[in-house]
Structures are given as structure tokens and as C-alpha cells.
Write a structure and sequence with these properties.
By secondary structure, the chain is α/β, with parallel strands linked by helices. The chain has 18 helices and 21 strands. The chain has a six-stranded mixed sheet, with helices on both faces. The two termini are about 35 Å apart.
Length: about 550
């Protein structure tokens, strides 16, 4: 049976565009008799002052956001910091993630469409002048958010984008009418600017009148207190500024090939993030032991400068299935070691087999040296590290392992922690086939699958983030179906926390559909999950072993 395509033709055409084709594509849409388009100067809370365009056909709605930035290099991070939105980092500042703001706006548009019984697929496109160094690595996350991103655009303010607000395309007018109360038109934007100018002029004239009535002996105006209400200037900038004093995230393998790696910035309060993790008690205890010995060395050195310190290796192995929190803990690991003074920066460089293997002789050594230098002061995380253990004796992955050990043997490279991640069984085979790794990586952290109770607690916390609550009957039904899925799961493909996240998304969609089909009698019901919202859980079952 053929699966229905998730995307429509309009959305798919947008997803295929690049920085060299997008403007020509937009020009063609302005002359398309089947696509309604309109420009506006803001929408919703997050994109209130952005240049925006809507493209609508009978099946889909695409919101184009023009991110007029400064053409600088920045690092994208789409993870929430507690209640704070994700941020994009430069070497000396940061800002709210424009992709996150676009994503939140798309959610608002979908809600308005649901209320008006408009069934359009919604997609977002961000054009930005900045260079996003980890764009390739984070693109799967953007895809999950329903957004395409094209960076390194030039002179966006100078680009004229045509529109086609054809009144005969009634589906376009209906869609725009459904979101009319959250849209700011260019005329409204000009009126707001004029009103703001008039207000500033009135304030200026009032200040002149006030100064004329004051004592002339005091000519020095009172200095205003700096505005500290902007959350985008908090203290975490300083730590990440140091972390970005490294290469841009691009590994140059040879003249024809370069690879981008993802760089995760340090967290402002890693201890709190560690404490918030569900389960992982053994991991937390092992981290505390490692930190205690690190801090003890610092105290001992301060009290007895000539004393011999305990040797503390930060290199570690993370065993575990998908969704057990390895990447999350690795990010906390770098930040918490930075706080303890064991690492100078605390960032995390995420690499895998593809990061190191090139096409020419010597690419592996060049790549390993660049990645190690990039991770100095922080953590180098190698995901699925067992893939470096190729079956063939001349597999280039084995060269990477040996190069890593040789470089880590350098006593001058103490300011780094290398973390090898992967499934337990193949990781153990990697260690067994290379005895040198056994001594270089003494710290072993096993991330066990979450229990049903852990998954229920994760579910409760995720639901609380949206201010939903289950009825007692709905919670019992959710417990039952989750327990049944857990009992028949295939441990090798079970998604743990990722499985919970995907299942809750299905529940939210079912809840939204129920609320829009039958109008809730009270606002409270909009946030109440009932048994009707709990859909059956689809899970890959453990394979049956047939024998005699």
C-alpha cells in the first residue's frame, strides 16, 4: 500500500530550493495562476517585526520569513534552556533562534486554521544573511520542526519579491482571513512607525520644556539606568564566547572536500540540568565521583603546591540505546567539568565516522588533528564510535582510532575529554580489539533503558510544559497502553524518551482534532486530555525466534 506523501507539491518545491535558485523560484510563483501570495510586516508575538510572505495553494500554506541579519557567523542551537527559548550564538553575543520563533508562529497559524476548519499543510522557510556553521548537522531538527533554512543570502533588503493577491483565488483569501487578527500589514507597520515617531517627538519636546524650567546651575542630565530586561544578554554569553574561540566547525580534508561538525554550547546551569534528568541515578553518581576527585585535586594543589596529584582521566565511554540521554548528558558533562575547572571552555564537538574519513591519503590524520584542536577546552563526542572498528584490517576507521590514541597520549592535551558513544555490545568489541582504548578510556557510563515509571514521569513533565493535564481515566489509559508497548518492545530499536515524545505528539494532534470538531464548552477543556485523545501505540516488536 502506498503511503501518502507528507508534503504537497508547493512545499516540496520550496524544500528543494538553494541560495542560488530561491529568488528565481519566488519570481515564478508571483506569476503562477494557482498560487496566492501576499506580503505582510509581522505576525503573532515572535515575528512581529519581520518581513514575511505567505504562499498558498489549495493544499498548503508556506510562510517565508526574511531574517535581515548582519552577515555574521553563528552557531544554531534549537534546544530549550529550561523555560528559555533556543538561541543562536556568535563569538560575542547571542539571540533567540529565528527558526524557533518561526516554528512557534506556525503552531499559532495551525491553531487558527483548525478553528476555521481549514485543512492546509503548513511549512516555514527562513532566508537569512548569516552563515550557520552547523547547518548540515542541525537540518534534521529543522525538518522535524517543519522548516527549511537557506543561509548565506546577500542583501535581502534590496531584493524585491513579487506577490499574487489574486481575488479569484478564494482559498488564499480564506486562509489569510483565518489569521487576519494576528497579521500586521505593511500599512499597519507604517502607521505604527509614524505613531512611534510622534511619541518620541512628544517626549523630546516635553524634555525641552522640562529643561527650560529647571535650575540652569545643573547642566548635567541624569544618566539613565541601563535596561536589563532583555533576556538575550544574560550571563551565559561569556562562557560561550570562550567556547567559540575555536575553528568554525568546518573540517578541511582536502582541496575538494570539507565536513561540518555540530558544536553544542555550554549550559549556564549544568548542575540544575543534571538534577532534572529522569532516572540516570547511576550516571549522576559516577559524575559526582569524577567531579569530587577533580575538585579534591584543586584543593590539594592550593594547600600543598608541591604535592603529587591524583591522575584523573576525563575520557569516557557512554553505552546505551537511542533515546537514553547520551547526547544530553554529554552536553551537561562538558559544562559541569568546565564549572569544576577541569575544562577551560565546556563546549561539545559532535563527530562520527564520516567526520574523519576523506577521499585522499592523509585525510584521516588531517581530520583528527583539526577535530581535536576544535574540541580543546571541551568535549569531543564521537557517536556510534564502534563504526570506526572496520572489519577489514586496512579500514581507515582503524587509523582514526590509532591517531586518537597517539594524540591523547600527548601530556599537553589535558584540556579535553573524549567521549565514545554507542550500543554496548559493539562498543565492547571495539575495546576488546584495541587494548589501548581500555586504558585511555577508564570511565564507563551505561545508559540503561528507561523503566515504565521513568517514561511516565517523562510524559508527565512534557505534558506540563504545554500546561495540559490528563483526566484520571485518560492517565490510566495512557499508563496501560504504554505498559503494553513496553512489554512487547524490541530493545534494539526501542526509542525510550524519543518514543514518548513521538507518542505525545500523536495525542496532541488527536486532542486538537477533537476540540475543533466539537467546540469545547469551556476554556479549561482546551487543556484537558481525555481517554478519547489516547490513540493506540504503534511499536516495533521484538523478533520471534523460531526453533526446535
Amino acid at each position: 500500500m502506498n503511503r501518502k506523501n507528507t508534503f504537497t507539491r508547493l512545499i516540496n518545491n520550496f524544500r528543494r530550493q538553494t541560495r542560488t535558485t530561491i529568488l528565481q523560484h519566488l519570481d515564478s510563483l508571483a506569476h503562477s495562476p494557482r498560487v496566492y501570495s501576499q506580503q505582510f510586516a509581522g505576525i503573532g508575538q515572535h515575528l512581529n517585526s519581520y518581513r514575511l510572505f505567505a504562499f498558498i495553494d489549495r493544499h498548503s500554506f508556506v510562510l517565508l520569513c526574511i531574517d535581515k541579519a548582519d552577515g555574521i557567523v553563528e552557531l544554531a542551537d534549537e534546544e530549550m534552556y529550561g523555560d528559555e527559548p533556543p538561541r543562536y550564538f556568535t563569538c560575542d553575543s547571542h539571540r533567540k533562534s529565528p527558526v524557533w520563533m518561526l516554528s512557534e508562529t506556525l503552531k499559532l497559524i495551525r491553531l487558527h486554521f483548525c478553528e476555521q476548519n481549514i485543512s492546509l499543510k503548513v511549512h516555514g522557510l527562513l532566508l537569512t544573511e548569516n552563515t550557520i556553521v552547523n547547518a548540515d548537522d542541525i537540518r534534521p531538527e529543522w525538518d522535524r520542526m517543519g522548516i527549511s533554512v537557506i543561509d548565506q543570502m546577500e542583501c535581502l533588503d534590496e531584493k524585491t519579491i513579487g506577490v499574487n493577491p489574486d481575488e479569484s483565488l478564494t482559498f488564499g483569501h480564506e486562509a489569510m482571513q483565518a489569521i487576519a487578527d494576528i497579521v500586521k500589514t505593511p500599512d499597519q507597520a507604517r502607521k505604527d512607525e509614524n505613531d512611534e515617531f510622534a511619541r518620541m517627538l512628544d517626549d523630546f519636546m516635553a524634555s525641552l520644556e522640562g529643561n527650560a524650567n529647571t535650575d540652569d546651575t545643573d547642566d548635567t542630565p541624569e544618566q539613565e539606568e541601563p535596561d536589563t530586561t532583555d533576556s538575550d544578554t544574560d550571563d551565559c554569553t561569556g562562557d560561550f564566547s570562550a567556547a567559540l574561540d575555536i575553528p568554525s566547525g568546518i573540517v578541511e580534508q582536502n582541496n575538494n572536500l570539507s565536513v561540518k561538525v555540530q558544536i553544542l554550547p555550554p549550559l549556564p546551569n549544568p548542575r540544575a540540568e543534571l538534577d532534572k534528568l529522569v532516572g540516570c541515578q547511576d550516571i549522576k553518581a559516577r559524575l559526582d565521583e569524577l567531579l569530587a576527585l577533580t575538585r579534591y585535586n584543586q584543593i590539594l594543589l592550593s594547600a600543598y603546591p608541591q604535592s603529587k596529584l591524583h591522575e584523573v582521566s576525563l575520557h569516557s565511554i557512554f553505552f546505551g540505546h537511542p533515546g537514553t540521554g547520551k547526547t544530553t548528558v554529554c552536553k551537561i558533562f562538558g559544562s559541569i567539568l568546565h564549572e569544576a575547572g577541569a575544562l577551560s571552555k565546556g563546549h561539545v564537538v559532535v563527530a562520527n565516522r564520516g567526520t574523519f574519513l576523506g577521499t585522499l591519503w592523509g585525510d584521516e590524520e588531517r581530520s583528527v588533528r583539526q577535530v581535536i584542536d576544535m574540541a580543546m577546552g571541551g568535549v569531543l563526542m564521537i557517536d556510534e564510535a564502534y563504526l570506526l572498528n572496520g572489519k577489514h584490517e586496512h579500514d581507515p576507521g582503524r587509523i582514526v582510532v590509532q591517531l586518537l590514541m597517539d594524540l591523547l597520549a600527548d601530556e599537553g592535551r589535558r584540556d579535553i575529554a573524549v567521549v565514545l558513544c554507542g550500543y554496548k555490545e559493539p562498543m565492547m568489541r571495539l575495546l576488546d580489539t584495541n587494548p589501548g582504548l581500555q586504558s585511555r578510556f577508564p570511565n564507563r557510563f551505561e545508559f540503561k533503558d528507561f523503566s515504565v515509571d521513568d517514561l511516565l514521569e517523562i510524559s508527565r513533565r512534557r505534558v506540563d510544559e504545554y500546561q495540559y493535564h490528563f483526566t484520571p481515566q485518560a492517565w490510566q489509559k495512557y499508563r496501560d497502553v504504554l505498559s503494553e508497548a513496553y512489554a512487547v518492545r524490541d530493545p534494539q530499536s526501542w526509542g525510550n524518551a524519543r518514543f514518548v515524545a513521538n507518542q505525545l505528539e500523536r495525542i496532541y494532534i488527536q486532542h486538537a482534532r477533537r476540540c475543533t470538531e466539537g467546540r469545547p464548552v469551556s476554556d479549561k477543556q482546551l487543556l484537558t486530555l481525555t481517554p478519547a485523545d489516547i490513540v493506540p501505540i504503534e511499536v516495533a516488536r521484538a523478533p520471534r525466534h523460531v526453533g526446535f
